From TrEMBL:
Gene3D superfamilies: Cytochrome P450. GO terms for molecular function: heme binding; iron ion binding; monooxygenase activity; oxidoreductase activity, acting on paired donors, with incorporation or reduction of molecular oxygen. Pfam families: p450 (PF00067). Its cofactor is heme. It comes from Neocucurbitaria cava. PANTHER family: CYTOCHROME P450, CYTOCHROME P450 MONOOXYGENASE ASQL-RELATED. This is Cytochrome P450 monooxygenase. Keywords: Heme, Iron, Metal-binding, Monooxygenase, Oxidoreductase. Coiled coil: none annotated.
Amino acid sequence: MAFLVDTNLNSIVPLNNTWSIIASGEQDHTRMRRNLSHAFSDKALRDQETLIQSYVDLLIQRLGEQAAQGKNVDIMRWYNYTTFDVISDLSFGEPLYCLRDSKYHKWVNLTFASVKALGLTAAKAKYPIFAYYDKAKSLFTDTEAPMRARKEFFDLAHDKVERRLEKGAASPRPDFFNAILKNQDAEAKALSRAEMDSNAVLFLVAGSETTATILTGATYLLLKHPAAYANLVHEIRTTFSSHAAITMEAVNKLDYMIACLQEGLRYYPPVPTGFPRVVPAGGGTISGHYIPGGTSVYVSQHATNHSARNFRDPEAYVPERWTGDERYEGDRREVVNPFSFGPRNCLGKKYVFLSPFSFLRPVTVVHSLTHSFTLLRFVSYSPNGRSMANNPNHSLAYAEMRLIMAKLLFNFDLELVHPDHEWTKEQKVFTLWEKPSLMVRLKPVVQPVQ
């Protein structure tokens, strides 16, 4: 029985009425994935390393300048500067110059506003009563501002794609459109012009904000847990003798750092909700429970990761649960899938399934405005009991976050400016987290890269 994508609740709906890979039908999804997967292959990532390294080194340089002036920094903003510059250059062959200018490009602010608008649009599409709420609220505030930002964001993406297409497939920079354009001659892989725009929007959101969210959350959690922070700093500074030695390949040796990031992904998943599917007409049975046709179902990563059925001490940040600590041997670590799994998993994060096993996983079922309940569902996982995120194969998301974290903590000591602030509490979600600033104090420990 096929549970198709719920296009009403799916919040990544492009303005040109052409679906991106994340919400496309099965045939279109297969075709687009054949094309786009080449841009995220191991070879592509190796080709992209020099470009990614240049932006991470620029981040370290600019943070060094801030530290030399005795300035506290909003590390959340600096992570966003970096990830937006990287994904813009990888997508279109040109950065947004956020790191260079030490400020958000207009497009970044439009991205945040657009994501919020997408969440609101999805809610109103599913529950029209919210449209009346908006009309009443508009008497006091401008409720259409996020929608205008969404339109402006999409128009800018279209223009960026247009400029990149003018350069053709012969561009010397190892960006995504090199791979996309090389596949245009094959009918089974070709993307339409509208699909290029829709997927470009997806690249920008999924390849920037989520990675910055992971890094910000992990930084906060580490600084709130001094023992874990000290262990990680020791691992990084005893593994590497120089800044230049920190490469995408070398950071995969940092087992404790990988555990810290993975525990951060469990505790503070970058996409806390899920990707909705629709129960087919006539209804369906999930783990013995009958669900009426038309019901939207999805996996809530945040609920799954904080369930005592899956983890001991679920509200505690414990990297050791990923390093073989016997206290946590009963944890269902395999349920942590921050980038989804199966044929629709994130292209920026590949999973290797060694053989099929099963485990129980909570699924949030949205039935109406007043009813929401949880079921158990069988899915597949790796039999070694380790998360797919520990797969040693390269992926853009993991390579970028590991490289940034390793170079940051090699070069600086960090501490929270407001250690009593509960940063993860009371954050709103509009598809993604609406994050406040995270102010940190930096102390250089080695000469920043020049």
